[in-house]
Design a protein that fits this description.
By secondary structure, the chain is of the alpha+beta class. The chain has one domain: Outer membrane efflux proteins (OEP) (Up-down Bundle), CATH 1.20.1600.10. β3 and β4 form a beta hairpin. α1 packs antiparallel against α4, α2 crosses α4 and α5 runs parallel beside α8.
């Protein structure tokens, strides 16, 4: 019987929590998931768009050929041929486009930033999903391993209870109660196995590769107990705010582009004739062109107002986001504090539960306590340890949620 009690007590010896491998898992996702490959394409596309902006203000060189026919006015030197031709090389250069060129010069810095911050937000959002699924998986897998050990220990203990009941040392009710407890644990085992499979499948999708967890190392909740005060200083530079600030800059430049329609446009054009028309004497010509739209029936002003409305909306969105970011951060900090308190109290409950179990096993050996009463203490302790496992993983998940929210990709 002493051996049985030792086996039962081993049920509550610290089995350890799997080591936090989140960083390694995020690296796997970054290397294998299609999202990050698409982000690379988006980045390259942004670079190409910036290069395209530059080409609009570079000179254009072309070759032009004309073949003309006129039934009366067009004649050759002989006075009979009404066909004529021309071949020329043309150079066109925009000198001033209402100031639009200066706006595009600024946009070539803004567009890549928009793509960069968008991609970063997508990455952080994806990593946040992995963070949640990973620690949900951790909860289930740790509870599963603990429950398997509990079932194994209980099965050995019940063999001893059965033997003692057969010789009349304990009531058969004790044995039946133990069997009921065993079947209940096995039913719980099936439910937890389903949870493990679900979160494993979810991680497979989020990683873009089969998820394999290293279960040989342990995690300490103390690693996640501290949230440095300086973290709050990062609130003004979280990726979401950076993106919104850049969107405001982009909206302002769109207003400037439309306003450029109010100003004149100047261009230079030069032709070098390789084959001149019959009556042409110039080998080349140069022209300076000026165009200025004086009245467009309000089309330009309406376009300006539309772009201004987009600018005002972008500014309002940033103001709202700034407030929500601070609220979200404060909420997570409060949750973190409560989770630490919760873990400390659960740890005390586990320690007291172990002492209670030791005392009751002594009473059980003396015949002062039935196995049914002892098994209730067993159930309570199993439940408290499960709650402690869940609370520790929740703490780690919340800690990483804060870091990801502040823009730390963890890799």
């Amino acid at each position: 019987m002493k051996l049985t009690l030792v086996l039962l007590f081993s049920l509550w010896q610290p089995s350890g929590y799997p080591k936090d491998n989140l960083k390694k898992i995020l690296e796997l996702a970054h290397s294998n998931h299609q999202l990050f490959k698409r982000n690379q394409i988006e980045t390259q596309r942004a670079k190409d768009e910036v290069s395209l902006l530059k080409t609009g203000f570079m000179p254009e060189i072309s070759i032009q050929a004309n073949l003309d026919y006129g039934n009366k006015t067009l004649t050759s030197k002989s006075g009979f041929n009404r066909w004529d031709s021309e071949l020329k090389a043309r150079l066109e250069q925009s000198i001033y486009n209402g100031g639009k060129e200066y706006t595009y010069f600024r946009l070539k810095k803004i567009v890549p930033n928009l793509v960069e911050y968008n991609n970063l937000i997508k990455k952080l959002d994806h990593f946040s999903k992995i963070n949640i699924s990973y620690f949900q998986y951790k909860k289930s897998s740790t509870n599963l391993n603990n429950l398997k050990k509990q079932i194994m220990v209980l099965e050995k203990a019940l063999k001893e209870v059965k033997r003692r009941s057969q010789i009349g040392r304990v009531s058969k009710a004790d044995y039946f109660s133990g069997q009921s407890q065993l079947q209940r644990l096995k039913a719980n085992l099936l439910s937890i196995e389903e949870e493990v499979l679900f979160y494993q499948s979810e991680l497979n999708q989020l990683l873009g590769i089969d998820f394999i967890e290293d279960k040989d190392t342990i995690i300490s909740w103390q690693d996640y107990s501290e949230v440095p005060l300086q973290w709050k200083n990062k609130l003004q530079s979280v990726p979401q705010l950076k993106l919104l600030k850049t969107e405001i800059q982009s909206a302002q430049e769109q207003v400037n582009i439309i306003k450029s329609e109010y100003r004149p446009k100047i261009s230079l054009q030069s032709n070098a004739y390789l084959n001149k028309r019959t009556n042409s004497v110039d080998d080349y010509d140069i022209s300076l062109n000026l165009s200025w739209s004086l009245f467009s029936f309000g089309e330009t002003s309406h376009k300006v107002e539309i772009e201004k409305a987009k600018l005002y909306l972008a500014r309002a969105k940033k103001t709202e986001a700034q407030r929500n970011i601070e609220t979200f951060y404060d909420m997570h900090i409060k949750r973190h504090s409560k989770k630490l308190t919760h873990i400390n109290r659960l740890q005390k409950a586990v320690d007291l539960g172990k002492k209670s179990y030791l005392f009751q096993t002594s009473e059980y050996k003396k015949g002062l306590l039935s196995y049914i009463e002892l098994s209730r203490t067993l159930d309570d302790l199993i439940d408290i340890e499960r709650q402690l496992t869940n609370a520790i993983n929740d703490l780690a998940m919340n800690w990483y949620s804060i870091k990801l929210f502040l823009g730390d990709t963890l890799i």
